[in-house]
Amino acid sequence: MALTRKQKEVLDYITEYVRGNGYSPTQKEIQENFGFKSLGSVQDYIKYLTNGGYLQNDSHSVRGLMPAAVQQNSEEIPLLGSIAAGIPIEAIENSDMISVPVQMLGRGKHYALKVKGESMIEEGILSGDIAIIKHVTQAENGQIVVAVVENETTLKRYFKKAKQIELHPANKTMKPIIIKDKECEIRGLLVGLIRSY
């Protein structure tokens, strides 16, 4: 079913809203956004988009609209094991795959690591979280990176000083790792987190 320009605008609004907020707009919010005179107009659009397969509508929920594009919008990336002392990333042979929302991923290659330990808790990165990592070999000051130091993989905030690299934990009880530039290898950049409750 082809969409009129207005139908596409309504669908795009719902899709962007879901991507930005993690839940759908209410019919009232859609009405206000487009300046429709009544909720009936909104319901007509929803009905057409639902019948056309563009939307799924859970009528029992005020925020029950789910664009088909968002639902299918996930990508499989390798889960390369845990980010903990003693395991260089390459050493992990059997990678599982994990499904990740596309909006977490930009361009480039990505992989996931399970966080172990308490070194980044003040950044809200907890043991057991899945860290979504973009594969890069360089970083800017202040970014949270996957770094390999003496064959150990670690997740820390990166700072490059004149002749050294400092890898800062986000835990007041721990000290930064301070090393020479060539002793640190950047393997990736933190771009997202997935947490199971």
- Which CATH class of the largest domain applies here? Mainly Beta
Beta fraction: 25-35%
Number of domains: 2
The CATH superfamily of the largest domain bears the name: Umud Fragment, subunit A
Q: Average the pLDDT over all residues and give the rounded result.
A: 84
Helical run tally: 4
The stretches of 5 or more residues where confidence is low (pLDDT under 50) are 85-93
Based on DSSP secondary structure assignment, what is the total number of beta strands? 11
The 3D shape can be described as elongated
Taking all Cα atoms into account, the compactness measure Rg is 22 Å
Q: Would you identify the CATH architecture of the largest domain?
A: Ribbon
What spatial order of strands do you see in the largest sheet? 4-3-5-6-11-7-8-9-10
Characterize the structure shown:
- It is built from four helices and eleven strands, in the order αααββαβββββββββ.
- With 197 residues, the protein is an alpha+beta fold.
- It folds into two domains: 5-71, Orthogonal Bundle (Arc Repressor Mutant, subunit A); 74-194, Umud Fragment, subunit A, CATH 2.10.109.10.
- A nine-stranded mixed beta sheet has the order 4-3-5-6-11-7-8-9-10, with no helix packed on it. A two-stranded antiparallel ribbon has the order 1-2.
- A hairpin with a 7-residue loop joins strand 1 (55-57) and strand 2 (65-67).
- Helix 2 crosses helix 3 (39-51).
- The longest helix has 17 residues, at 5-21.
- Residues 85-93 have low confidence and may be disordered.
